[in-house]
Amino acid sequence: MKGFKCLGFAVVMVMAGQATLAVAANQQDSRLDAHERAVQVYAQQHGLAVPAVRDYQYGMQLDVRDVILKTASTRSCDAEPMLMTYKDSSGQLLTLRYSEQGNCPKFQG
User: Fold this and answer.
1) Exposure of 107 in the CB half-sphere (CA atoms within 13 A)
2) What start and end residues bound the annotated signal peptide (predicted)?
3) pLDDT tens digit string along 7-30?
């Protein structure tokens, strides 16, 4: 009987962990979705094409003239997906996806 109680507790803990991860993933997605919606509005207002999201690769040469929008950082201790939309020197609108360390409350003074 004792083994069943421990097993039951372990199952509940795993399910709670999965629920927490699902909530965190939804929050990340909502930040990125909001960014993409704002970029669509910006592009329409300025007569520009809505850019496809490209993944940043280490060493990638960037031509950033103006940063238009950057996804807000989270209060997470993990690396989080972020988006940055910018104009290059030719005026083209571009969006990059990259990872950024969140503002972890453990390390705040």
Assistant:
1) 8
2) 1-24
3) 444 444 434 444 444 445 545 579
Domains belonging to the chain, first-starting first, are 2-107 (2.30.140.50)
Against a cut of 0.90, is the pTM above it? Answer: no
Report which DSSP code applies to 59: T
* One-letter amino acid for residue 93 of the chain: L
With a CB cutoff of 8 Å and minimum separation 6, the contacts of 83 are 32, 35, 36, 53, 69, 70, 71, 95, 96, 97
Are the C-beta atoms of residues 94 and 51 closer than 8 Å to each other? yes
In DSSP terms, 79 is beta-bridged to 101
Residue 78: its pLDDT value, please? Answer: 86
Which residue(s) pair with 70 in the sheet?
84
Distance in angstroms (rounded) separating the CA atoms of residues 67 and 79? 21
Q: ∠ CA(77), CA(80), CA(108), 5° rounding?
A: 30
* Residues 72, 76, 79, 85, Cα dihedral to 10°: -10
